[in-house]
TrEMBL record:
Top-level division of the source organism's lineage: Bacteria
Organism: Phytohabitans kaempferiae
Keyword Transit peptide attributed: no
Gene3D superfamilies linked: P-loop containing nucleotide triphosphate hydrolases
SUPFAM superfamilies in alphabetical order: P-loop containing nucleoside triphosphate hydrolases
Protein name per Swiss-Prot or TrEMBL: HelD family protein
Annotated UvrD-like helicase ATP-binding domain residues: 170-504
Amino acid sequence: MEEERAYLGAARAALARMLDLARHRVATGEQVAGDRYTAETLGRMLRGHAKELAEEPDGPLYFGRLRFGDGATAGDHGGQTYYIGRRHIADEAGEPMVIDWRAPVSRTFYRASARDPMGVAVRRRYGWREGILTGFEDERLSQGQEGTSRIVAEEIERPRVGPMRDIVATIQPEQDDLVRAGLDGSVCVQGAPGTGKTAVGLHRAAYLLYTNRRRLKREGVLVIGPNPAFLRYISAVLPALGEVDVAQRTLDQLLARRPVSTTDTDAAAIVKHDARMAAVLARALYARLGEPAGPLTVAEDSARWRVSEHALGRLIDEVWQESLPYGIGRERLRSRVVGLLRRQAEARGYAPGAAWVQRMGRSRPVRDLLDRVWPAVRPQEVVSALLRDPSEAADGILTPAEQEAITRRTTRWSAADLVLLDEVAGLINHPETYGHIIVDEAQDLSPMECRALARRSVHGSLTVLGDLAQGTAPWAATNWSQQLTHLGKPDARLVALTAGFRVPGAVLALANRLLATLDVDVPPTRAVRGEGSVRVRRSDDLPAATAAAVREALAYEGSVGVLTREPFVSDSDRVTVLPPAMAKGLEFDHVVLVEPADLVPRLLYVALTRAVSRLDIVHRRPLPPAIHPAP
Ligand SMILES: Nc1ncnc2c1ncn2[C@@H]1O[C@H](COP(=O)(O)OP(=O)(O)OP(=O)(O)O)[C@@H](O)[C@H]1O
């Protein structure tokens, strides 16, 4: 232990020195660089580096150590010792003191086992409490020794307070496989509640940024979560891993090109989110194309250039066949028309240059022609016109009742309208794309929402995270292959996670019984945590029973989530009150679930599986049969 304390002291000193150096570079770097652009870029880069280093918590600098043996399987690592931590730390000579958990050799830390030691003689795990090293555990893998780790178990059982934490110290082999999947392929993780989908997605973002830093700095990484509360909950994980440059948004935020000031009826929202709307919108947009009203004539000085109506018709057809975005098609048509004019000019002995081409393109007759046959258009014009009278674009695609459902009498936009606007914007021009998008709770995305993400990842890859059993939107996916097709990645690798790190055995037994009634094809979860407890209380006075349950819950350590549709107030900052539908993706040590009979089975499944240690069910009406506690 003495030796370990000395190493820790040296690593702390090395990190402090790295931080000083980075700060010094921030202070002086701008003066040493040549031109202003280089200076600015360098300054930004150095500030980023200093910030990353400074965000390193005072706490654990490393969580594990690998000591390789001398055998052939150790390869280049024979006889070496490596400390594995959240970030790379080097000594004054540049020799690594702590290796980043994402480096290739760190993979061995997560994957080696007694059955396949991968050259490792001893794997050591460190225990920390409040930044202080408390001890370590060794597994002599090469001697076939591999135990259930007390340190890992304690980490998993630790009470939950505040936002989500990283799991770098305890990533499991099947999770590691997903975290380290290459950037070029897309993956889809079907994971039961608490199996670590969100954790895997966030660690994967950090891993991809590490292995493809330059490319992803340029192309961007985006995390999509179901609601702002969820984004707040996960917001600290990537910065804790040293990654501060990842956009984290809800889909509504991503698509917010107009303020939302009205809501749809359920019937309207269902139609607007249906995949058929893509065809309706494309038809509505392209219905704007017109026929030429005659030949095109452009006069300049004494010359007159002319393109016949027939030739114009042929050009329009040709451009149309190229299937370009609408806005690009318009410009392509302009340049083709001018190209014809130019060839005529050349044939008559003129030598038209770039200025001539530009003048012709902007000339009145060419503009008039384009406005007639391929008019410029904004998404809101197309969607407004469609919603005023859907018949022309929707006949044969939507039923009369569906058309009636989306016909609107106001000029305000709903959340679903934003998805439609985005679809049209995507038909008109290429949207900004990302190198990698991680999308959580993906089972709840509608086909039209999936398309919005597909457009933004045409050149990139996706990590799709979700659980078909937790789908509660009216359009929730019932199978992944269809959802992945809507997301533009039908070939994504589908992997199921089934080891549950959140929900304790007693709660899981209840949840798995409910799962059997949900009519979805997903494997049940097995609990990695302890038993936990489930308590059911019936009362005619729900508010009083809820208050009593919360009072008792506060006697324990950790967070309390009250999942209820009724108003409830608590003055403790450990208590969060929210409707069950908003609890997706969140977790609380103690959950007080009020009146489960109010919830549809899938939402009930979501609500039950938020509990980390204890679940209190408070009810007045009879319990849904599937969750009667076992006799
Ligand atoms: N390998 C691990 N070691 C320790 N804790 C873990 C591990 N994997 C997951 N966890 C913890 O389990 C809890 C659930 O993880 P997470 O929220 O990622 O699950 P999820 O599959 O997204 O759940 P849900 O479907 O309910 O949203 C989190 O507290 C997470 O930190």
